[in-house]
Every structure is written in C-alpha cells, then in structure tokens.
Specification:
There is one protein chain. Helix content is 79%, strand content 0%. By secondary structure, it is mainly alpha-helical. α6 packs parallel to α9 and α17 runs parallel beside α19. The longest helix has 34 residues, at 107-140.
Length: 500
C-alpha cells in the first residue's frame, strides 16, 4: 500500500514558518503587539465562522438556482469575503480604536496578523495535521489504512504523485499563500488607516479587494498554473494600490499615533505574572483535569480493546473528544481563582491607582484562563494519543475531525464564557460562599454549553452536528464579546475594590 508523498509536508511547513517569521520580523523590526494579534484573530475567526454558517444554509440551493454558473458563484463567494472579512476587519479595528487598543502604526501588523491566522493556522496548521494523520495511518497498515487509501486515491490522488509532479504543486500552493498574504496585508492596513485617519476612501479601496475570491469557482476552468498566476497578479495589484494610497500616512503613522503602548505593556505584564500564579493557585484543578482525562482516555481505550475490532475506532474516536472540554473547564479554574483572590485582597485597588483599567484586568484574566486550557488540551491530547498508540490502536480520521470541529473550539469558547461570567458575577455581587468562588456557579456556566451539545447531538447528525457546534460556539463568543464591551463601558472601577 502506497503512502502519501512526504514532500507534501513542505507546503504547510513553509506556510507556517513564513507566517510566524513575518510576525517575528514585525515584532523585532517594526511594531506588533499582543492586542494586534488578538484583534486580527477576532476579525478573522468571526468572518470565517459567519461564512461557514451562511454557506451551510445557502450554498446548495444557490448552486442549484444558478445551475452552477461560475460568474454567479464567483459573485456569491466574493461578496461574502467583502462583507465578512474586509467589513469585519474594519469593524474590529474601529471598535479597538474606540477603546484605545490600536493605533496608526499597528496597521501593518494588523494586516500581517490577518494573513497569519489564515495561512499559518487555518490552512497551514490544519493541512499539516491532516498530512501527519494520513501518513501515520497509512504507515500503520490494517483496515483503517486501506479505507483511508481508497478514499484519498479517489478524492486526492495528487498526494501519491512522484517528486517531479509534487514539487510544482507545492510551489503553486506556496504561491497561493503568498498571494493571500498580500491581499490580507492590504485590506488590513487600509481598514486601520480608514479608522485612525477617518478617511472613507481607504475603506472604499479595501472593500473591492475581497472580490479576489471571485476567481475561486474558476480554479478548475483555468487550470492550477493559470489560476495561481492570475490570483497572484490581482493580489499584487491590491498591494501596489494600497502602498500608493497610503504613502503619506505610512510616513506619518508613528508621529500621529497619539495613543501610547502602555496598555499593551501592562497587559503583557499582567498576563505573564498571573499565568505563573494561576499555575500555582489552581494547580490542584489543573492536575485534576489532566489526570481525569488520562483516566477516561485509558479506560475507554482499554474497554474498546476488549471488544470487537470494528468497535474500537468508533468508541475511541467519538467518546474521549466529546468529554475533553469538561476536563478543560476543570483545569482552567486557576485563572478565576487568581481574579477572585486579588479582588478580595485589594490587589486591584493598587493596580487601578497606578493606571490599570478594568478592561486590562478582565482581558488579562481571560488570556490566562485560555492559556490554562491550552495546557490541559496539549497535555491530554498528547498523552492520550500516546496511550492509544501504545495499546495498539490507531488515530482515526473521525477522531481528528471531532477534535477540530468540536473539542478545541468548544473548550476555548466554554471556558471564555465561564471566565467572563465568573468575573462579572464576582464583581457585581457580595461575597457568598459557593457563588463568588470560581468553583461555584461559574463551573455550571462552563460545563453547561458542553452538556447542551451532548444532549442535542442525537438530533444533529453529519453536517448538522457541525452546525450545532458552530452555532453554540458563535453564541458563546458573541456573549463574551458583549460582556467585554460591558466591562469597559458599564463596569465601574468600584466593582473591583475589596469588600474588606
């Protein structure tokens, strides 16, 4: 049985390295802040989520209505990019600027950030992960390998091509990501300048750039080489137009930035300090979440190994990923514990006196908690996959799919919702045992969304499950965003003063 050509690993590795390298360059040589990275993530993730939801409901009826006409499909895809990606980038930049979190010389970094999340994470990261899974499964042999080989041979026969054919395809894939970088950089810069300099012509120039996706339906018609050359040419034109329009503003960006970077420096310091404290403060919960995940994963694998071999993939690939978000909630309690402790002891009175605002306090706790989720997921997934392989199991595509579309997004979204709700609840109420504590009401808020999905999963099968998870995730993210705005607009500083 033939394995995929290992040369194809070069494509996502180059994408990831190039994306990370650009951020490092902008960080060292120019300006790239944590706020810029977070803002670009919010803008990009929100746009992609909305596109997924819209296309889920409309792509099939629309395709049938226009009889697959590429012009209509091109307009359909291009307008979504214009509205959700370019429009979303402008909206996110406008909100951030109104809260003093972005300035003129962040414009280039914002564009680089948008390109990073698409090329380095969404495309590069997911492609690399898929290739690793394919390679490991095919190398292991057996029924799963044969089934995967049959599927890939039909759906993606290019993966088994020789080096002489693979290398040009890799080059075209990299060229497409470079094109994506150029156009994301262009509209990201224009959106920030439109907000900072209050010039609508920058926004009017940025919006049409989303129409480069008009070419997507023509990929098969034009051929790979012609498509990539045309796509690169249009994206390069977008960059040249952007540089020409913003020549004066780019020279004056640093001097007209009336905002300072003190907020970013304070946030970075708070996150670093509180993350270390959260590891110690909530160590028992962090360890508990990881240990329970190991016990559950090992138990499921052990029980499955005693059953018929056909049942093993289903049990292991579905059950453990479904339960993992609950363990992530448990392991992330340390962040809320630090918040409640500092508020009770009067730490925030000291910080507020030195210029730290409510927005930074809440953001730092949220980032710390999401960092703890990353630790739990990283350790649990690595350990349980190792246990699975040691016990003779295989990594099933269904497991990878479940992790990507459910476990990871729901873990972060649920914990973010729990953290924001817990902080606001703790700040708005008097101290009541079991309520203000992060192991009180906040626990239910964190586990609640997971339980809702588990209870409704039997009614949503196939693509319906993806829609269910996406819907719940969008609701949670929207609620977190609303609560974050409320903290900055409505949360009085007195709410964070000690009750003592």
């Amino acid at each position: 049985m033939q394995n995929i050509n290992a040369l194809y690993f070069l494509s996502p590795i180059i994408m990831i390295a190039f994306s990370v390298g650009l951020i490092a360059y902008w960080k060292i040589k120019k300006r790239f802040t944590v706020w810029t990275l977070l803002l670009s993530l919010v803008a990009f993730a929100g746009a992609i989520a909305l596109k997924v939801v819209v296309q889920h409901f409309t792509i099939h009826p629309f395709t049938e209505a226009v009889a697959g006409n590429p012009v209509a499909l091109g307009i359909y895809v291009g307008l979504q990019t214009v509205i959700f990606e370019v429009g979303g980038a402008y909206l996110a930049a406008r909100i951030a600027f109104s809260h003093g979190k972005i300035r003129a010389d962040d414009a280039e970094g914002y564009g680089v950030g948008l390109a990073f999340w698409e090329n380095g994470v969404l495309v590069g990261g997911s492609t690399l992960l898929n290739f690793i899974v394919y390679y490991v499964i095919l190398a292991g042999g057996g029924l799963a390998a044969q089934q995967l080989f049959d599927t890939l041979s039909t759906a993606a026969p290019i993966l088994f091509d020789s080096a002489t054919i693979a290398l040009p395809n890799i080059g075209l894939a990299v060229l497409e990501r470079i094109s994506s970088l150029l156009v994301h950089f262009s509209w990201g810069l224009l959106c920030v300048f439109a907000v900072v300099f209050k010039k609508k012509r920058f926004l009017l120039a940025a919006l049409p750039m989303g129409l480069v996706d008009f070419l997507v339906p023509y990929a098969g018609v034009l051929g790979s080489l012609n498509f990539e050359i045309l796509f690169f040419g249009l994206c390069l034109l977008c960059l040249l137009v952007t540089l020409g329009l913003t020549k004066t503003e780019r020279k004056n960006a640093a001097s007209v930035s009336l905002l300072t970077s003190e907020g970013s420096m304070r946030l970075k310091s708070l996150v670093q300090t509180n993350f270390k404290r959260a590891l110690s403060f909530g160590s028992i919960y962090l360890i508990l979440g990881i240990v329970i995940s190991f016990l559950t994963g090992g138990l499921i694998t052990g029980l499955a190994s005693e059953m018929a071999s056909a049942d093993v993939p289903l049990i292991v690939s579905q059950t453990f990923p479904l339960m993992l978000p609950i363990y992530a909630v448990i392991g992330s309690f340390g962040g809320l514990m630090v918040f409640v402790s500092d508020r009770t002891k009067g730490v925030y009175e000291y910080l507020i006196a030195y210029g730290v605002n409510v927005y930074e306090i809440f953001w730092s706790t949220l980032l710390v908690t999401l960092g703890l989720v990353t630790v739990v997921l990283g350790v649990s997934l690595t350990g349980n996959i190792a246990i699975l392989l040691l016990m003779g199991g295989t990594i099933q595509p269904a497991m990878i799919e479940m992790l990507l579309i459910y476990t990871i997004p729901i873990s972060y979204a649920s914990v973010a919702f729990m953290t924001m709700s817990g902080m606001m609840w703790s700040s708005l109420t008097r101290r009541i045992p079991g309520v203000n504590s992060p192991i009180g009401i906040a626990t239910l808020l964190g586990i609640g969304p997971v339980l809702v999905i588990l209870m409704l999963s039997s009614f949503f099968v196939g693509s319906g499950f993806l829609l269910l998870v996406g819907g719940v995730t969008l609701v949670l993210v929207a609620l977190v965003a609303v609560m974050m705005v409320v903290t900055n607009k409505r949360m009085n500083r007195e709410r964070l003063l000690s009750d003592a």
